[in-house]
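Reader question, answered in our methods column.
A reader sent in the components of a multi-part assembly and asked whether the whole thing could be modeled at once rather than chain by chain. We filled in our standard form and ran it. Here is what they sent:
COMPLEX SIZE: two components
ENTRIES:
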Amino acid sequence: MSKRVGIEVSIAIAEAVGLARAEVIPAYPITPQTHIVEHLSEMVANGELDAEFVPVESEHAAMSCCCGSCAAGARTFTSSSSQGLSLMSEILYIPSTMRLPIVMVVANRALSAPISIWNDHQDIMVQRDIGWIQTFAENGQEAVDLTIHAFRVAEDRNVSLPMIVNIDGFTLSHVIEPIELPDQEEVDKFLPPFKPRYKLDPRRPISMGPVGIPEVYTEAKVAHDMAMKKAKRYILKAWDEFEKVFGRKYNPVESYRTEDAEVLLVTMGSISETAMTAVDAMRDAGQKVGLLRIRLWRPFPGQEFRKAVGKAKVLAVVDRCLPPGALCGPVGAELRSLFYKIPGSPKIFSFVAGLGGRDVTVERFEEMVDKARAYAKKRPRELYEVIGVREK
Amino acid sequence: MIPEFEKFKGFKAKNLPKAEPLSSGHRACQGCGEVLALRMVMKALGKDVIVCNATGCMEIITSPYPHTAWKVPWIHIAFENAASVASGVESARRVLARKGKIPKKHVDIMAVGGDGATGDIGLQFISGAFERGHDFLYVCLDNEAYMNTGVQRSGCTPYGAMTTTSPPGKKSFGQVTWKKNVPAIAVAHNIPYVATASPAYFLDLMNKVKKAALVKGPAYVHIYSPCPTGWGSAGERSIEISRLAVETKVFPLYEVIEGRYIISRKITKPKPVTEYLKGQRRFRHLDEEHIEYIQRRVDAEYEKLLRLAEMS
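And here is the structure of the entire assembly that came back:
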C-alpha cells in the first residue's frame, strides 16, 4: 500500500523519478531545482536507484547528454530552472522533433535581469514553442503524479515526445506537504519499461539527426506538429489509467465552482490554490465567480477549455510572465486566439502578476475579478495590466 | 603501459580492414583531406561503434536526408556538444548493460567534430566529458578554420593565414594569433591517451585511433585535415601538404600516453616552412618577416615538444 507522508516536494519528485526507474540522470545544479537532483544523486550513491547520475558541467551539456542517453535507449530524466533552462534552449528544440522522450521537471523561476531566484513563469514561457508536452502542477501530490505520468506519456510509442512538468520554484519545490508516494508495484503496473522504436544500436545501425534539406524540413516540422496534436488523446488516456491504478483523477483543465459563474479566473500552477480561497471568499460574498486551472499547456487543450468556460462572460487570466512590448501575456494571448470571432465568447483580460516571487494574495485575485468586470463594460486601452505594481 | 594495448598488433598495409563503415558517394569537395581522414578513422574502428557527430562539414556531407553515408549508428544533435552527447550514449549503455537490457559486448563510442566544434565552441563540453572520465574517444578533424560556413578563422587557424574573417589588409596580415594547442588542453585533463595524426601517415593514424578506442576512459586524437576549398590548395595535393606539415615540424606527430610524450616521427632534417606555406593561397600574402617569425616559432614549439618527450 502507498503511504501518505510529510515530505518536501522536491524530495518527493526525486522519489517519483526513482519509482519510475529512471536510468540516466544528467543534471547541473540551479536554485530552486537543486533538492531534486541532490536527492537523486543520493539515491544512486546509496544503490537505491540503479542509474547513471551524470554530473555535467552545464545545463546545455545536461540536455545534450539527455539526447545521447535517450537515443541510446535509456529512460532519461533531468531537471532545471530559469537561466539554466535558457542555457539549454538551443538544444531543447532538437529532441522534440527527433522524438526523444526525455522527461524534465522545471522548477519555474524568474529570468535575469535583475537576477532573481524566485518564482514566476518567464523561464518556461520563453520556451513555449520548443515542441515538448508541458504540464503545470498545482501542489506536491500533483508534482509527483505528473512526473510519473510524464514518463508514461512521453515514452508511449504513439507519442514519442519529450515532456516537461512545471512546478513553481520554492512555493512548490521547497515546501513540505502531505504526499502519497505510490508503491513500486503500482508504478511498475502503470509504467512499462522503455522500449523505443529506434535507438543507437550497432546491430541495427540508423542515422539520427540528419540534414533536413528544403524538400523535407517542412514535412519534418509538420510531422512534429501532428504528433503533438495526436498526443492529447494519449495524455488523457494515461490520466484515465492513472486514476484506475492510483485513484487520483486529472484533467487537462480543472474547474472550480464554475457553475453559473459570470467571471472566471484562469490560472496555472500553485497560485491556483490561493485562487480557490479567493473564489470561496467571493462566493461567500454572493459573487458569481469561479476558477479554471490549466494543467495541460502543450498541446493546448482548446476544446476542453472552451467547454469548461461554459456560459461565463468574463475571463480574468493570470499571466506570470511579462513579455515586454507584446499585446498581452502568453496565456492571455492563447485564450484570445482560442475565442477569436466565436459568437458569444467571453471577454478576456490578461493580468500579469506574481513576477519574481511577488506573492499573489486573495485580495489580488479579488482585485483582478473586479477589474475584469469593469473592463468588460468599458474596454481599457491595453489588453493587459500588471497587478500590484508599487507606486513608491 | 596501457594493458589494452598489449593485444593490439597494429594495422599494417597487408592487414587493412576491407570494410568501409563510412560509405563513398557522400558530398565532400574534391580532394577533401578531412573526409579521407574520417574514412581511415572509421576503417580503424570497424562496425561496433556509435558515432556522435558535431555539426560541420562531415555531418552535412554524409547525412542529407533521405541519404546517409553511415553504415554504423550515427547521431547528430548540434555543433558544440558532441562530447556531451557521447557522454549520454556511454552512460546509457553502461546502465543498460548492467541491467542486462543490451549485450555486454563492448561498443566504441566516438565523438567527432571539426576544429571549431572542438577547440572553440565545444571546448567546455569536451573538458567536462574528459574530466568525468567517460569511456569514449574524441576525434578532432582539424582543417584550421570554419570551413562549413565559408572559411572563417577559428582558434586553430594558423598564424598569418587568410580567412574570410582574418583577411590581410592595409593594417593586417591575416590571422594574428598562434594556433591554439588543443591536444595540450586535452593532456591537461590527465586522460590516458592523446595523439596527433595526419592522413599522410595513414597507418600511424589508424593505429592511434584504434588505441584511443581500446584505452579505458577518455581519449583524444587530433587529426590534421587539409581543406583545398578553404586553403586555396590543389585538391590532388592534400596528402602532399599533410606530409609537408609534418616534415617542416608545423604539425608534429606524437602520442601522450598517461602523460608521457612520445614523438611518433622525429624530424631530424626538417624542411623549411616555406616549403609548406607555398602552394596554399591562404599564406600567399605573407612577407619574409612573417615567414621568418613562423619559422622561429615552429622551431621553438618543436623544441618544447622534444623537451616534453625527453622529460617523460
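What stands out: Chain B has a mean pLDDT of 97. Strands of chain B lie at 49-53, 74-76, 108-114, 137-142, 168-169, 172-173, 193-197, 219-224, 254-257, 260-263.
Send us your own complexes using the same form.
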